[in-house]
Structure formats: structure tokens, C-alpha cells
Automatic annotation (TrEMBL):
GO terms for biological process: transmembrane transport. GO terms for cellular component: membrane. The keyword Transmembrane applies. Residues 56-463 form the Amino acid permease/ SLC12A domain. InterPro entries: AA-permease/SLC12A_dom, APC_superfamily. It is found in: Membrane. It is a multi-pass membrane protein. This is Amino acid permease/ SLC12A domain-containing protein. PANTHER family: AMINO ACID PERMEASE, AMINO ACID TRANSPORTER-RELATED. It comes from the Bacteria. The lineage of its organism: Bacteria, Bacillati, Actinomycetota, Actinomycetes, Micrococcales. It holds the Pfam family AA_permease.
Length: 486
């Protein structure tokens, strides 16, 4: 080995890699935007905030967008200097050490891997109820959910470009429906005329407390903004493309949320908005009132949004598991590449089996595989669990930004200290709020399950340190293109 050759170079040369330079800026935008799921988040998430923030829910989404941009700053800064398919795992390893990185990988597994079975449950239960109402037939949700599961796996095998092409088509289809219906509602003047009051905090029926609680639920709509980071090995000029993709997708989807929630508020009116609860389907009612011809377009947009979330989150976790396999922190087989398609075939199979087994087991325990309640509970329970796992990762990523940049010549007090500190504290506050708000079973014991899993992962890192220190030392060594491009 020459003196100029690094361990990273050795890993790269000896292990087949993912297909380089296969994703442009548009692909990175779609990767993050589709995971956030504009249609599914607009159609199903605001009514979880409205029991608390009511008519002021659009203001809550505006505040959440600002907070997300603050948190995204740290993620974008780390993506600029350390792009990798390992995403947060690599960022935190580079800044805080291999044990912190390994622990992050464990949390990321929960945060990303659970999105697959959650979407199987949501698609299945939503279509089961729809088929019952529209055609009088009853197909168990698990059989419906297996259809997108099969297509998710096939697309993952075919490669990131096939997945992103599908996600792009689904994404544009869903946002067109959201925007058109919102425009129709606004053009009709809503229920009682147009008003900017929903963007005022004073519109909250429960005051500041309602705004804070509503914010906790609104934050779920922005989870996944960082999805583009998993394309660090496959994006063109990743040092520039990944940060820009994160920023543009967050602004784009955030704007859709703001317009959509405002249209929802003016379409239902103050009383209608304040009376919404999580089990309601207000957009179905709005379509029936303002544009009956859009009923099936609305249903198709919702399903396409769920599927786009499913395939993009699956691509993210597959690449993280693949990276940890290449660095031998997970079984080496997970780091293997399919030579023909240049895709992480073993990791794809492993994740597909995990999604199927998790959906079957948790769906059975949540209400059964035939009752739509089992599918909807599967989505709700796993959604809460993965949120409890990903919020600490966001906080760690912002802390990593401070540590990583403080000794660099390009250190900037605002971008590398003030914003990351604020972002980390906001994520911890949001996590605490999420736990406080959800006090009914099984939500009240889910944080303890995440804590137990975290303990197991930490013990695994300790075991690696004592038994396979060379593997732990390699953590985070696989980078996308080497040093930062100035």
C-alpha cells in the first residue's frame, strides 16, 4: 500500500460499488419529496393536529416548515463534506466516532425499515375500506398490501433509476391532484370566504398549548426530508447535489402542505376544522362538496403517495444496510452487489423479508390480517415508533455538525454552531412532546421499546470494540467521492 492510499480507497477498490453518477438533482429532490409523501400527508395527517390547533393548523405547518429547515441545515452541511449511501450513519461516525455511528445505524434501521410494513398496512386498510364502500367486496388488507410489497422489491432489484422513475411519475400525479382540488376549493371561496386567519396563532382554539401539541403531529409530515442523503454514492456531484436536493424538496413539499392545509381550513370553515379528529377523511368530503368528479382521482393520489413513500424509504434503508455490510459491521453478505444490475441484491432480499414478517406479526397483534383496523393500527403504531427513533438521529446529526466543523477552516458560527444547536434542541423537545402527548397504550410503552433496542445496539458496539476492533475502526470509511469539493 502506498502512503497516499487510504483505507477508504482500499475498500472502494476491492468491493464492487453502486452505480455512480446515475442520479441528478431532480432524482435527489424526488427521493426526499416522495418519502415525505405530499398527498398522504396532506390527506391524512392534518386531522391529527386539528383536535389541538384547529383552525390554526396551517400556522402549525408553517412553523414546522421553519423548524425543519433549521434541522436540515446541519444535515445539508454534513452531506456537503461527507456524502455516502450510509447517510446519517456515516455523518455521525465521521464526527462522533464509530460507536456513535454504529448506534445511529441501529436507530436508522428502526426509523426507515418500519416505513415499509407501515405503508403495507395503510395501503391495505385504505383500499379494503374503499372496496367495501364502492363495490361491496371485502378483500383482507394483507392481500392488498402484498401487491405493492412485490413491486417495491422488484423496483429495488432493478436499481435506483427504475425506482426514481416510478417515484417521479407517482409524485407528480399526487401533487397535481392535491393542487387542483385545493385550487377548486379556493376558487369557490371555501365555506365562508377566503381568509388568512388560519395562518395566525390566535386562531388556535386551545391557545399556545394547542399549537405545541399540533406541532408534534405536524412534524410527522416532514419526516423523510433527508431521504436524498442515501444517494451519496449514486448522485452526480453529490457534494453539491445532495444538499440542494434536500433544500429544494423541503421547500417544495412544505409549500404544498401550506397551500393544502389552508385550502382544507377555508373549505371546511372554522367550526368544521375545529371539529376534525384523526379518524376523519375530510378531503373525501371536500371532493364530494366541491368536485365530485375527483373522487377516484383523490383515491388514486392517496395510494400512489403511499407507494412512493414505500419504495423510496425502502431504497434508503437498503443502502444503509448495504453500507454497514461493506464495512463489516453487519454480515458481509449484506454488502454484496448484484454485478448485472449494480444493486445491493442481498440487502434488498433481507429488507423485503423484514417488511413481510413485520407486517404479518404486528398486523396480527394490532387487530388481525382481515380487519382493516389491523392495517390502520399497524400504520399508526409503527409511525409513532419510527418517529421516536428518528428524532434522536436528527439531534445527533446536528451535534455532529458542530463537532465536525469546529476545527475546520470553513467553520461558520451561524451555519455550524447556532443553527445546529437550535435544531438539536428542537428535536429533543419534539421527542419529549411526542411522548407526553401519546399516553394511551401502546404508545406510552413504545419509547421504552426503542430504548431497549438502543441498549442492545450499544452493547453490540461495545462487543465489536472488544472482539472486532478492526471492523469498528472501519465504520464510516466508505465515502462517496473522497474529499470535499470546494
Amino acid at each position: 500500500m502506498s502512503k497516499t492510499e487510504t483505507s477508504s480507497d482500499v475498500v472502494k477498490s476491492s468491493v464492487p460499488g453502486l452505480r455512480r453518477n446515475s442520479v441528478g438533482l431532480g432524482g435527489t429532490v424526488i427521493m426526499s419529496a416522495a418519502i415525505m409523501g405530499p398527498a398522504v400527508s396532506t390527506f391524512f395527517n392534518p386531522q391529527f393536529s386539528t383536535p389541538f390547533s384547529g383552525y390554526a393548523t396551517p400556522f402549525v405547518y408553517l412553523a414546522t416548515l421553519v423548524v425543519t429547515l433549521i434541522v436540515a441545515n446541519g444535515v445539508m452541511e454534513m452531506a456537503r463534506v461527507a456524502p455516502s449511501s450510509g447517510s446519517f450513519y456515516t455523518y455521525i461516525t465521521r464526527a462522533l466516532g464509530p460507536r456513535a455511528g454504529f448506534t445511529t445505524g441501529g436507530l436508522m434501521f428502526v426509523a426507515y425499515a418500519l416505513l415499509g410494513p407501515a405503508e403495507v398496512g395503510l395501503i391495505g386498510s385504505y383500499l379494503q375500506v374503499t372496496f367495501q364502500q364502492e363495490f361491496g367486496i371485502d378483500i383482507p388488507w394483507i392481500w392488498i398490501g402484498l401487491v405493492p410489497w412485490v413491486f417495491m422489491t422488484i423496483l429495488a432489484f432493478e436499481g435506483i433509476r427504475s425506482s426514481l422513475k416510478a417515484a417521479t411519475a407517482l409524485f407528480f400525479a399526487e401533487i397535481v391532484v392535491v393542487i387542483i382540488l385545493s385550487v377548486i376549493i379556493v376558487s369557490h371561496g371555501g365555506a365562508h370566504g377566503l381568509s388568512a386567519e388560519p395562518f395566525s396563532p390566535t386562531a388556535s382554539p386551545q391557545g399556545m398549548g394547542g399549537l405545541v401539541t399540533g406541532f408534534v403531529f405536524a412534524a410527522l409530515s416532514f419526516v423523510g426530508f433527508e431521504g436524498a442523503t442515501a444517494l451519496g454514492d449514486e448522485a452526480k456531484s453529490p457534494h453539491r447535489t445532495i444538499p440542494r436536493g434536500i433544500l429544494l424538496s423541503t421547500l417544495l413539499v412544505g409549500a404544498i402542505y401550506l397551500f393544502g392545509t389552508w385550502a382544507l381550513a377555508v373549505g371546511l370553515g372554522r367550526d368544521g376544522m375545529n371539529n376534525l379528529v384523526g379518524t376523519d377523511t375530510p378531503w373525501n368530503d371536500l371532493a364530494a362538496t366541491y368536485a365530485p368528479w375527483m373522487k377516484w382521482l383523490l383515491i388514486l393520489a392517496a395510494v400512489s403517495s403511499m407507494f412512493a413513500v414505500m419504495i423510496n424509504s425502502n431504497n434508503g434503508i437498503v443502502r444503509i444496510v448495504h453500507t454497514m455490510g461493506r464495512e463489516e459491521l453487519l454480515p458481509r453478505a449484506l454488502g454484496k452487489i448484484n454485478a448485472k444490475r449494480q444493486t445491493p441484491g442481498v440487502a434488498v432480499i433481507w429488507q423485503a423479508l423484514f417488511v413481510l414478517v413485520a407486517a404479518l406479526i404486528i398486523g396480527t397483534l394490532s387487530g388481525g390480517l382481515a380487519d382493516p383496523l389491523g392495517g390502520s393500527n399497524l400504520y399508526g403504531y409503527l409511525g409513532f415508533a419510527l418517529t421516536c427513533a428518528i428524532l434522536p438521529i436528527y439531534a445527533l446529526a446536528n451535534w455532529a455538525t458542530i463537532v465536525y466543523f469546529r476545527k475546520r477552516p470553513d467553520f461558520n458560527w451561524f451555519r455550524h454552531m447556532v443553527l445546529p444547536m437550535c435544531g438539536g434542541l428542537l428535536m429533543i423537545a419534539l421527542l419529549v412532546g411526542q411522548i407526553i402527548v401519546n399516553q394511551s397504550p401502546p404508545f406510552n410503552w413504545m419509547p421504552w421499546v426503542i430504548l431497549a433496542w438502543l441498549t442492545i445496539v450499544i452493547l453490540g458496539a461495545v462487543w465489536l470494540r472488544h472482539n472486532r476492533p478492526e471492523a469498528l475502526t472501519r465504520a464510516g470509511s466508505i465515502m462517496a467521492t473522497g474529499e470535499v469539493e470546494e
